[in-house]
Protein 1
Amino acid sequence: MYPADTIVAPATASGLGAVAIVRLSGPRACAILDAIFRPAHPGEFAPRMMRLGDVIDPATGARIDRALAFVMPQPASLTGEDVAEIQCHGGQFIVRRIVAIAVAAGARVADPGEFTRRAFLNGRIDLAEAEAVADLVAARSDSALANALSQLTGALSARVAEMRAQVIAIRAHLEVEIDFSDEDIRLPSRREVAAEIERLLADVALLHDSFARGLLIREGVRATIIGKPNAGKSSLLNLLLGADRAIVTAIAGTTRDVIEDSVQLGPYALVLNDTAGVRESTDDVERIGIERTLRSARDADLLIAMFDSSRPLESSDLDVIRLTSNRPGLAILNKRDLPAAISAGDLRRHGLTLPILPFSAINVEEAATLRAELTRAIAALVDPSASTTNDRIAISRERHRDALAMALEALKNAHSSALSLMPPEIVAVDIMAAASALGAITGEVSGEDILDAIFRDFCIGK
């Protein structure tokens, strides 16, 4: 469990703002609020009813701020404990002073994620929903937001609970066979048990395999812009971002290192990497930049290959084509505002298989077309056709993937044992291992070390 004390922390980000929130949770939350807050009009706090008043330093009687406050009594609160919140003006000095007088009145500054951890330990949310809180805070695209909200409202937990119930039902069949094998009871055959396990294996594998898609949704799709020097890579980056993020000159080799920034395209986050031009170089600094280009291209989820249509194909263009082999992405035939020296057909004849977009990076009006093409490329990568609600659920955390992998391994062993007509006790061992692995996702089976690892990356106040 955890110490039965009262914690306090700002629940809003640091920095200047119109309003900030200071949150208290624990057995003395309401008493501490009474000690540091004087309502403008006499009377007790009604649950969830905002009251106007002054924050007071009990030691000196000095007024700190004019603010709003309310209480949420346990158990129907954020954490399952008594919770009190003060909504004050958003100056950081004010926030620090309120936290300090709350500590002086008997609270302790909360550890990262401690409010959410208490909510989990008090049964207000399960572990998957707790992790979704962090994902919701960190979301940087509509798709990431939707996925986090789906998990926060229990979609993943419900799916896991459904699979775990099926596992336990199989275990019950085996227990009947173990305990009542001498009775005149109709028992499922080993092949019937194996068929049940096989159906369950398909469901668990589907959720396990959603990890790659879920991670792209959560972290964003990483795209590397590659091409020979002066093909227009930096101009493309600036056009997509709507800002002069990269230096653009007519001098080859201006970009020496990987420049990273992100933009939202449709519902997706695209993390863009502008890179040094692909070419042979004797300059040590430029060569390091080219090595980083190749590494960035290898690590990218998506490649944006730039070709200069105003110049004949060179060996560096052919190197770019080779880098795109069997990779998702988009080819851009840039500088179509200039007389053409090569065409899309020339790129095709040299083995380019990516979709090709004729383009001019200096024409702002073409940005909409580029964004639409990139959005289609991202959608094909992130959101392959999913026909059912269950298919839409995507895990995005390594912990979930690993737990599902353990469940798959246990179910495969149980399936093999059932087909081999092994004793029911042997099959049941693997079945229960699968149930434990699935339970770890929602926190039905979890240790302090797991909880520490999950909540240490939360921000203070959550």
Protein 2
Amino acid sequence: MSASVTPANRNPGFGILMVDDEASFLRSLSMVLERRGGYNHLYRCQDSRDALAMIAREPIGLVLLDLTMPHISGEELLKQITEQHPGVGVIIISGLNQVEKAVHCIRLGAFDYFVKTTEEDRLIEGVRRAVEMQEMRLENQAMRRKFLTDTLERPEVFSPIITRDKGMRSVFQYLESVAPSGQPVLVSGESGVGKELIAHAIHELSNRPGKLVCVNVAGLDDNVFADTLFGHSRGAFTGADQAREGMVEQAGEGTLFLDEIGDLSMASQVKLLRLLQEGEYYPLGSDKPKRIRARVVVATHRDLEQKQLAGEFRKDLYYRLRIHQVEIPSLRQRKGDIPLLLDHFLAEAATELEKSKPTVPKELAVLLDNYSFPGNVRELRALAYDAMSQHRTGVLSMDSFRRALDQNSISRDVTSEPSVALFSPDQPLPTLQEMADMLVDEAMRRSQGNQSIASSLLGISQPALSKRLKKKAEDSSS
């Protein structure tokens, strides 16, 4: 194996085995993979007879195989690997520049074929594609195991995320599956759903030895973006009296989290794409590239697919970022979490404000259940803190919640599928009075019989609703 590395900073998570009878070629190939590709989880085998034993003994996921070797030829070894270890990818790196031989190897199961005189860039790109394919295969296997058993291996990592929602649990299972990968992760979701908490969880799950560095890139022009991420050398521009390391370097072997990536300018998108594709960057004013060692996680509340279709986001960068993608459900999609989150935030606020945690009225849960929460979890937290700041003793007052959730903000969705017709064309339309009675019944159902909340849902005063209910009861009894 090449220079010793700890399990936490191996790249990739599985080993890359190089099999060639020329020791000098093995050394040079190792240097290319480490310096140009950033791969350090490498194994060398100079005797083809030892290759299968190494694959069985070590966590090998990819083999770089020479064809012309003594004892066991590369072609025969390729057959044995595909038969005995079908999950291991094989790339042929041969001194033979023959199309027929290349086609034959691909048919035998090789992932790709390169000639030893191939340019380093082409070889590194081929290895990168193979590594990505292997990582995706391993992640799919891990996801199948997790969803079939419905388990979390490290539930403690997700403890800061207050939830009991099944959709969020699926997100957690997916994150555990992709965490070992070195590929970028795209976290999408509305503002306030907790994307930064997800980034923290990804970093913890990856066991990377470096730290998590967070950068909000919204509103950064191209020069500021480059200086923030890549740093600069001394004298790079007026006022640059000393060199400064960028956030990429500060992250080291940890995680670089770029928030609001959907607001990045086109010029900055080019720089980010190069960073992800080539794995290297240039500090401002420097002509010597540096390699990125951190894992990149990005987040956005924008619809990147629509932005790239509109020409506002680079297609190549979009597809590079979405190798691993997770969508965080909005709070209105997991309303079962509202009581849990409210209790958590009230307790948190009570501790910070040095107050006793209040009793929560039953009506409050009903009121919040009928609100759409455009600000998601962040908005609920603000509501809880505002209520606690005004709370004195006893039962928590609902006044601050009512003021915040004015009647124009109350959800009035009659159906979760607006495109579905409300009335059958084969049936007569209901009268206005019948429709009014139906609306009143639905509002009372949603409010669990609370007339104050029901009147807010209907956009009428409480006395007006009481009058309608009284008349409805009289009509029913007559």
